[in-house]
Amino acid sequence: MAELKYAFYTGCSAKGVAPELYNSTKLVAEKLGMELIELEAATCCGAGAVQEKDEFLALTINARNLALAEELGLDLLTICNTCTLMLREAKFKLDNDPELKDAVNQVLKEAGLEYKGTSEVTHFLWEVIDGVGLDKLKEMVVRPLKDFNIAPFYGCHIIRPPYLIGYEDPDNPKSIEMIIEAIGGNPVDHTARLACCGFHSFWSAEDKVTLKLTAMDAQSAKEEKADFMVTPCPLCHTQLDAMQEEAEERIGINIGMPVLHLPQMIGLAIGLKPKELGLEKHVISTKEIIQKVA
Amino acid sequence: MEKFKLKVFRYDPTRDTEPYYKTYELPVEKGMTVLAALFKAKEEQDPTISFRYNCRAAICGSCAMRINGHATLACKVQITHLLDKYQTDTITVEPIGNVKPLKDLIYDMDWLVDKLKRIKPWFIPKEKPPVDGTEYRQDPYDHHRIDFASDCILCASCMSDCNALKANKDFLGPMVHSKAYRFAADTRDGAKKERIEAVLEDLNLEWCVRCMECTTRCPKEVQPYENIIRLRIMAAEEGYKTPGEIHAEIFEQDIYNRGLLNEMLLPMRQEGILGAIKRAPFGIKMMLKGKVNYADFFGGHKIKRLEEVQKIYKAAKEKEKEVKIKLPQIMGVIYEDKRKTRKRVNYAETGGNE
Ligand code: SF4
Ligand code: SF4
Ligand code: FES
Predict the structure, then answer these.
(1) Which of B103, B256, B138 is nearest to A54 (CA)?
(2) How far apart are CA A263 and CA A125, in angstroms?
(3) What does the radius of gyration of chain B's CA atoms come to, in whole angstroms?
(4) Secondary structure class of B327 (helix, strand, coil)
(5) Nearest Cα to Cα of residue B104 among B168, B158, B53
(6) Nearest to residue B297, comparing CAs of B286, B311, B308, B309?
(7) Which of residues 168-197 of A touch B (CB under 8 A)?
(8) Does ligand 3 have an atom closer than 6 angstroms to the CB of B293?
(9) E strand or H helix at A22, and its extent?
(10) A77 half-sphere exposure, CB direction, 13 A CA radius
(11) Which DSSP category does A70 fall into?
(12) At what angle do helices A262-269 and A175-182 cross, to 10 degrees?
């Protein structure tokens, strides 16, 4: 098996509003035998915002982020869907346009850096499957989540657009279900499995679009009697967990659907304690989950 | 598999109070498209099935429908491919989503046409035609900016699966916004301002949630999502100060000053002091849950090697004036299942050179 060593790109959320993601990722990765070398000099990926104001700048800062992983000779591992997409988009543009790559490298030279294109951009979700392997994961399960109906919520930027992501079929992805099954849980099929949480239009269409989507998504998991939702993206998490109560208010319904980060769910199954994984840090109570695994 | 089931959405408002599904069993034939299967069912089993089609060659856009939950052109996708993709013996066909079904697979197009009219989806020349009778000329790079957008066949597959439209039918939608971009970005067009103002009305252009369904669905690689973003860039360049533009500025400043976004101070910077007051209860809730990095209130920590970023930032701002970014062509870069094909590189052996 290839060495499970990665340049770890945390993104802003895990360093800000989702500290439990940062901590649980590190703990779980270590248990799974993944070595994460944190890119402490990496910047924000631009999250689509910088990209729409200043495309060249966004490309350049991400070329630098990629160059930092190249310095280590490692693939760059993210824990956020949008970071994954932004970094892969930059890589796609640079690798397919030699003139653009040259222009970007002229800028990077100012800081003694160069983008070569040698590192891949990957996500924790994919590496649990491709790197660690589901067989090994199964072997490590000490607390199978057999009493849980778990609703996967992929989040857009880990499946779409396929020309930039391409990891699995965007119409019928299976990776999260594969992990849920490996840890003994029951994946729940629900209508919002591949839907959008609404996060990215929050500041301009909070009432008109965002919160309606958030409510529809959490409700769809509830209708299928899920015990919790799980997502590989901290932005989806923030939207579905922290904004769920606001969304409920707008729609006038009670949902109360807990939402776990992917590493938290895996962590529970491989024996880590709910507290170590930061389960108490969620806005929608995870008390019932904690009681069930106790 | 010798036979498959074609499960068809049926609805005749003159007879049915509710839509229902009717299933037809058909032989699996090599090369048979969904449209061909519908014809076979109609000709041999049930002449009452209604659907729209015209070119049968993925050109006219009239056969768009939802197939196993995702919009596409019925004349473009093959039965064998779908059975394999979904590992099933059933193919479900429904009218496209987000619009009103009229009869079986036929949906109400007037609603879409009304939306389109708002952005004047036709060429409004800036100048009189050349006197020598030749065509309007355009620089190849300028043409490249609208090349993919011009391929739209108005099939509405993108509208069908749009998440923003699902939440709010007042959203103009990817087809309409993308079409607005196609004309507004045309250097020969004389109604750029008018078109931008039409999409900015009620901040409509900013309702898009960046879910990328539209680009994923589009059978012609028009890149509707990307065109929406290009339109937003144009609006900012024209000086419209939208929440999106303010958001982007905050990100840029934070990348320059500290490397990472300061999420704690974001609401105040985005919406001003009133916004901060409005968000205070939410902030307190997050604090109580331990989701707050208190250092962020005082600027927060900075990334390592920040001076590198600042140098690059300034140099990029200078350089970008001369860079012409080509729109990436996504044609041919189709979905590839990397999960099944990916080979992991052993960096320990290659030293990072592979
Ligand atoms: S990216 Fe925007 S326009 Fe496209 S489908 Fe999603 S919400 Fe709709
Ligand atoms: S952008 Fe693509 S999917 Fe949308 S209407 Fe045009 S051709 Fe169809
Ligand atoms: S019949 Fe014309 S696009 Fe399918």
Answers:
(1) B256
(2) 9
(3) 25
(4) coil
(5) B53
(6) B286
(7) 168-172, 175, 195-196
(8) no
(9) helix A19-32
(10) 25
(11) H
(12) 20
Look up residue A34 and give its DSSP letter. Answer: -
Q: Tell me the HSE value of B291 on the side-chain side, using a 13 A CA sphere.
A: 26
**Distance (Å, rounded) from C-alpha A117 to C-alpha A94?**
8
Q: What is the pTM of this model?
A: 0.95
Residues of A in contact with B216 (CB under 8 A): 160-162, 170
* Tokens at B86, concatenated: 């979904």
User: Based on the number of CB atoms within 10 Å of its own CB, is A205 exposed (0-12), middle (13-18) or buried (19 or more)?
Assistant: buried
Spatial CA neighbour of A109 closest among B255, B313, B257, B312: B312
As a whole number of angstroms, the distance between CA B65 and CA B69 comes to 9
Contact A52 B229 (CB under 8 A): yes
- At position A41, the amino acid (one-letter code) is A
Integer Cα distance of A38 and A9 in angstroms: 6
Place of tokens 């009452």: B48
Name the residue type at position A2: A
To which H or E segment does residue A37 belong?
strand A35-38
Residue pair B178/B227 in contact by the 8 Å Cβ criterion: yes
Asked if A29 and A7 count as a contact pair (C-beta separation under 8 A), the reply is no
Virtual torsion, Cα A188, A190, A193, A196, nearest 10 deg: -140
Q: Return per-residue pLDDT of chain A as tens, 294 residues.
A: 458 999 999 999 998 899 999 999 999 999 999 999 999 999 999 999 999 889 999 999 999 999 999 999 999 999 999 999 999 999 999 999 999 999 999 999 999 999 999 999 999 999 999 999 999 999 999 999 999 999 999 999 999 999 999 999 999 999 999 999 999 999 999 999 999 999 999 988 999 999 999 999 999 999 999 999 999 999 999 999 999 999 999 888 999 999 999 999 999 999 999 999 999 999 999 999 999 998
What is the distance between the alpha carbons of residues B163 and A216, in angstroms, rounded to a whole number? 11
**Does ligand 1 have an atom closer than 6 angstroms to the CB of B229?**
no
Please state the length of chain B: 354
Quick check: B339 contacting A, CB < 8 Å? yes
CB-count burial class (<10 Å; 0-12, 13-18, 19+) for A216 = buried
ipTM for the complex shown: 0.96
Q: What is the DSSP string of A272-284?
A: --TTTTTGGG-SS
Q: Which two tokens stand for residue B44?
A: 């041999």
